[in-house]
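Posted in: Protein Modeling Q&A

I'm a second-year student putting together a small comparison for a lab meeting, and my supervisor asked me to include a predicted structure for Acyl-CoA dehydrogenase family protein. I've never done this before, so apologies if this is the wrong subforum. The sequence is pasted below exactly as I got it from our records. If anyone can share the structure token output, I'd also love a short note on what stands out.
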Amino acid sequence: MSELLTGDFYRFEELLDDEERRTLGRVREFLRTQVAPIANEYWARAEFPTEVVKGYAELGLAGRAYPGAPGPRPSSLLSGFLALEMAHTDASVATFYGVHTGLAMGSIASCGSDEQRDRWLPPMSRMEQIGAFALTEPEGGSDVAGGMRTTAVRDGDDWVLTGAKRWIGNATFADLVVVWAKDELDGQVKGFVVERGTPGFTATKIERKIALRSVENADLVLDNCRVPEANRLQNARSFRDTAGILRATRSGVAWQAVGVMLAAYEIALDYARKREQFGRPIGRFQLVQDLLVRMLGNVTSSLGMVVRLAQLQDEGTYRDEHSALAKAHCTSRMREVVGWARELLAGNGIVLDYDIGRFVADAEALYSYEGTREINSLIVGRAITGLSAFV
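Accepted answer (user: helix_wrangler)
Welcome! Here is the predicted structure, written out as tokens:
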């Protein structure tokens, strides 16, 4: 059984069964011993800690959610707590894992043929091959559904991809990149698996980031990049299929946001107990306690939201607007919590020695990726009013 996190005030983790909590405990120990000690160092260097991939592989969790994987399929609740736990330690490593298992593997599992799933998912599950997901473009983020500029042209048994992608996590070292491009013939968005070393494909690391610095985001260029028809995801026929993948992974970002704010709260609480001013721990001052309680309220309400979202997922009744509301709400509350935690630590909150500075910066990336707050608000607004406000 794993020990409950300090910030899990309403003991939501106890909703997991005993085996699930043992699994969570194994992941927690791996993160505590292999990721936490090196997180700040790699973040400062803006490098991905490739040595953690072996540890992730040994956990045997990647790909368990997809058909044909060995072992029981994890519940959405367990998957959520795993995402929370990873972000609670390091949002960069959590993002790496989410891109690989959620976006890349999810694309192949949802949109690939049986042959494609059999070809790629087993080695990706063993983390022998790492995946990336290329949707966002230099001039297209929120409007990429209708304004995608990357094109695909059929040429015999091949497709020729031309265009550019930006902010593509894992792409500098990925073995497989799922690239979304618009078919010039029918105008529909289709998915293609581009393998490392394909001529015409280049990935250049984006430098000078202030958030998720250990994630090696890349600018991609596809210059008459030739991909065989066998690498076109056979069941990706329009952007609706792409959106289905984003709906599933968006809930994972909400869980990550809870993990980040929970870590910030726990760091601030520990600091308040130990840091002395005016001859006493600052945790004895009323204003500090009020700040901590506001932080805990955000953590608890957000955790309650994603727990219920996971239950709806397991029931098969959740919809786009459910994950959109969770992503918008939880990342907004996360921003408040990390800001308050930084405030409580004062000057010590801006150095990596106390960890909180890393969480403050990384929160900005989580707030924006997988759909901005504004876009997710419009998804929810359309659902509750029956009226679309999209341009």
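A couple of things worth pointing out for your meeting: Residues 12-125 form a domain with the Butyryl-Coa Dehydrogenase, subunit A; domain 1 fold (CATH 1.10.540.10). The chain is about 50% helix and 15% strand.
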